[in-house]
Amino acid sequence: MLNKLINMLKDLFGRKFPYIRMSITDVCNFKCGYCLPNGYQVDKSDKRKFLHLDEIKRLAKCFSELGVCKIRITGGEPTVRKDFFEIIKILKIESGIKKVVITTNGYHLDKKAKLLVDSGLNGINISIDSLDQEIFKNVTGHDRLQEILQGIKNLQDLGFENIKINAVLLKGINSSKKDFDKWSDFIRNNKIDLRYIELMQTGDNLEYFKKYHESSMIFKKYLNENNWIYQTLGKDAGPSKNYINPEYKGKFGIIAPYSKDFCKTCNRLRITSRGDLRLCLFGNTGISVRHLLQKDNQLNELKDLILKQMQFKKESHYLELGETGSTKNLSKTGG
Ligand code: SAM
Ligand code: SF4
């Protein structure tokens, strides 16, 4: 067995991996133009079922023993799973993982807020591409902005603090000063981080990408012109470059995957909903670990397999070269 000292997730470029993004389903109930414009379609080429509760628990326990302290549950839309709350509770109570967080589209968030808080969840990222009801509806195919905003309010009323919002930056859709000002008003008195993510090219969305990709420089310029101050990255910082302003309770952030050095601070690995370990959001590196999730006594073998895979993690996603690998859309790998 591998010595405990080297029993930590590290790659050949000196990066450490205390963070896992775990997709628990590919299914989604929204139709975001950049992700699933025609809604979720069953992948007939992949007959494997989504990871079940016991498999998820074993995997999380394994990662915890490999030094992982945070797991983000994602999808597809993770909350569509009937056992979603059970998954959160089991991870919180039985896996040894300290922080369990989710990324969600906020479907029925108004009704689910209390259950989420009661589940022991440590943080929530909600995707809202626009505060304009019509734009939101056009991008996602769902007129649900109000229920999501009400859900955020309900979370806040229950004292839940770690709330972030992600918006994909889309040229001519949500990238004007008016759009930025709306978010600015929103976070003035809301202790919420709003992060614009640059649209990424995937196997399925080339036309959409060409039409709507906008450099995050446009938002950076807005921040500079409006007295937002760049907050230098902490030791365990994620991919978001954050900006603060003393007059605001919330922060702004930029996630720019095409920027130089984006991959240098990579601190995460991914698990797909069918139990493939993915070393990067993009590219083809990764293998199935599912055969080692079947019994509790496979734990050491599973740890060894995952540790050995770390040597295959590449230095960069090479996205700027148009290399999207096997990633058809981000509902498959959880964004
Ligand atoms: N359904 C959930 C949601 O939308 O929050 C979780 C999964 S979704 C794939 C995770 C994140 O990826 C969302 O914030 C979404 O906006 C983002 N995303 C999806 N496709 C993207 C793309 N092509 N470029 C940039 N971000 C994308
Ligand atoms: Fe669904 Fe999230 Fe993809 Fe939108 S971004 S279609 S909500 S998985």
Explain how this protein is built.
The structure is a single chain. This protein is α/β, with parallel strands linked by helices. It has a 12-stranded mixed beta sheet with strand order 7-8-9-6-5-4-3-2-1-10-11-12, covered by helices on one side. Helix 1 runs parallel beside helix 2, helix 1 crosses helix 9 and helix 3 runs parallel beside helix 5. S-adenosylmethionine binds next to strand 3 and strand 5.
Number of helices: 9
Strand order of the largest sheet: 7-8-9-6-5-4-3-2-1-10-11-12
Show unreliable segments.
Answer: 1-5
Mean pLDDT: 91
Total strand segments: 12
Bound molecules: S-adenosylmethionine, iron/sulfur cluster
H-E order? EHEHEHEHHEHEHHEEEEEEH
User: Which outline best applies?
Assistant: globular
Main beta sheet? 12 strands, mixed
SS class: alpha/beta
What is the topology?
Blueprint: E1 19-23, H1 53-65, E2 70-74, H2 84-94, E3 99-104, H3 109-118, E4 123-127, H4 133-140, H5 145-157, E5 163-169, H6 177-188, E6 193-198, H7 206-212, H8 217-225, E7 229-230, E8 241-244, E9 251-255, E10 268-271, E11 276-278, E12 286-288, H9 299-309
Parallel strand pairs: 1-2, 1-10, 2-3, 3-4, 4-5, 5-6, 6-9
Antiparallel strand pairs: 7-8, 8-9, 10-11, 11-12
S-adenosylmethionine binds at residues 28, 34-35, 74-75, 77, 103-105, 127, 166, 168, 197, 199-200, 202, 205, 330-331, 334-335.
